[in-house]
Write a structure and sequence with these properties.
about 325 residues; alpha/beta; Rossmann fold; seven-stranded parallel beta sheet; about 40% helix; about 15% strand
């Protein structure tokens, strides 16, 4: 049995879906009634609990697990909403409780979704697993961002410690920006989703600044592929960068979005605004050579192919009712 925490969250939903398609026995761990309702119609075992509290009842009920995929947690985009204590309770204590459950039931593999924000202030153009940590939250105007980043770093370090102490496989996947239908960004209406909304209506799309910076972006189903590769590996341990291995400027993103989402005859124009500073301040891509070598991970979706699949998922509306619902909220 594979336990997936954050089963009603963005990454968790896709992970559970793929594992079930692969014929795996899966238990989805969710936080509230929204997740319970979603899985009630899918005939997938589901368990509702708050990971910031001990999982003793879960261990008494589900006495064994072959692996845990830990996707639950509070996100950086929530920092205006939650306090530092909330981040520490959910992201640090949550990881501790998950690991204690793993230790108690003899689970020997934990795959953790990490953060890329630990290198957000790095001046390097290529980010490796051993690139020194360099982060900050002041530029965003959200002090909670620092609490988010430090809580995720602490959670990853705790996983590494348990792996050493108890002979587990502790695998952390560091992800860049994820593109995919059903993400929390839909709820917060980020620039990516604003561009799609404008393209669907044929409205002009504004591009700020010099649009010279580029970022690594990964499609959600490539993230899931990395999780599956991690579950199959008998030797992987530690941190792995998971991304596309290439970068896109905001202009290139907009052009792909126009190509995929605009209706014939209603193509959005691009409006350039060099007088407005671009939000992105530095460029970077992830080196995925270690993941290729040790996990057998190779991205299957180009940015354009990811958008085309995004559009199909949007038309299917598979996650209707869970838009903006996160898997874990503070107590």
């Amino acid at each position: 049995m594979i336990l997936v925490t954050g089963g009603a969250g963005f990454v968790g939903r896709y992970v559970v879906d793929q594992l079930v398609q692969n014929g795996e026995d899966v238990l989805a761990l969710v936080h509230d009634a929204h997740g319970m309702e979603y899985y009630s119609s899918l005939d997938i075992p589901v368990y509702s609990t708050d990971i910031s509290t001990p999982l003793d009842a879960l261990a008494d009920w589900y006495k064994s697990a072959d692996a845990i995929v830990h996707t639950a947690g509070l996100l950086s985009i929530d920092s205006p909403r939650w306090s530092s204590e909330d981040y520490f309770d959910v992201n640090i204590k949550g990881m501790y409780n998950v690991l204690e459950y793993a230790r108690r039931v003899g689970c020997k593999k934990v795959v953790n979704i990490a953060t890329h924000s630990d290198t957000s202030r790095c001046n390097e153009k290529v980010i490796y697993e051993d690139t020194p940590i360099c982060y900050g939250g002041g530029d965003s105007g959200r002090p909670g961002t620092i609490a988010y980043i430090t809580s995720k770093i602490a959670a990853m370090n705790m996983l590494n410690a348990y792996a050493l102490e108890y002979g587990m496989q502790g695998i952390s996947l560091r992800l860049p920006g994820i593109r995919g239908y059903g993400s929390r960004d839909t709820f917060y209406n980020c620039v990516f989703h604003q561009f799609i909304q404008k393209a669907l209506k044929g409205e002009p799309i504004p591009i700020w600044g010099k649009h010279e910076t580029y970022r690594d972006l990964v499609y959600i189903k490539d993230v899931v592929q990395a999780v599956v590769c991690s579950l199959k590996s008998d030797s992987a341990n530690g941190l792995y960068n998971i991304g596309s291995g290439s970068g896109l400027t905001i202009l290139e993103e907009a052009q792909h979005i126009i190509d995929v989402f605009c209706e014939p005859g209603e193509v959005s124009d691009i409006e350039f605004h060099p007088e407005i500073d671009e939000v992105r301040k530095n460029s970077w891509i992830f080196s995925i050579s270690k993941a290729k070598r040790e996990l057998g991970y190779f991205p299957r979706y180009s940015y354009r192919e990811g958008l085309e699949d995004f559009k199909k998922e949007m038309e299917l509306n598979r996650f209707d009712g869970l838009q903006g619902i996160e898997s874990t909220t503070p107590p």
